[in-house]
Amino acid sequence: MRAVFMTDRGKVRQHNEDNGGIFMNSSGQRLAIVADGMGGHRAGDVASEMTLTSLKEFWEQSDEIQTAEQAEDWLRKHIDQVNKILFEHSKENAECEGMGTTIVAAICTDRFSTIANIGDSRCYILNELGFQQLTEDHSLVNELVRSGQITKEDAEHHPRKNVLLRALGTESSVEMDIKTITFEESDLLLLCSDGLSNKVTVSEMDEILKSARNLEEKATVLIEQANHNGGEDNITLVIVEFYDGSESG
Predict the structure, then answer these.
(1) Which residue segment(s) compose the domain that 72 sits in?
(2) N or C terminus of the chain with fewer C-beta within 10 Å?
(3) Which residues fall in a coiled-coil region (predicted)?
């Protein structure tokens, strides 16, 4: 398995409130995370940083994940723990009141990947069936699209596009979506914040990921494209590729 993490402040924001990374447990299995923080007085970067630090610590102390059920349980249990940590911190520190973060996280083994998400950071997969989004945004506009009140095109320019219905750390408990997929040779996972998905079209992502570039180059070109298309938000992504271990590189 190969993986790359990249983040960029973008062209407009003064600070980068996104966080992310790729971490290994004792068995060499990877946990990929993207978190997009929100809250005034830079509390957003506190929320996303605390999320990343806590999950990294939990993961590095974890044993090998052998089944999808174990992976789903691990994500549910530890994301719940992080939610409580953030919520308590925001109550005890006035400058962090109301802070929260999105999260999309993927446990990647050599047989499957298990993905959890809260908010509007996304996970996509590129495999033999094509390029598709695996996660559902927990946002007001996505609910309006799902209920048929507006079209996907309307959603692109909706004035309340940034309103989230779920976030990590803003309530004492939170619901998350979790799903497991088979992960096969040459498949790619893309985890990203909305700074990428709002600025780079699905067809552009598909084209860049299918190109002959290496993973670092693909990540760089995706961020360059988001900045070229406006770069109004922080841009963060992780790409994970499963390949045959007998290959060179």
Answers:
(1) 2-241
(2) C
(3) none
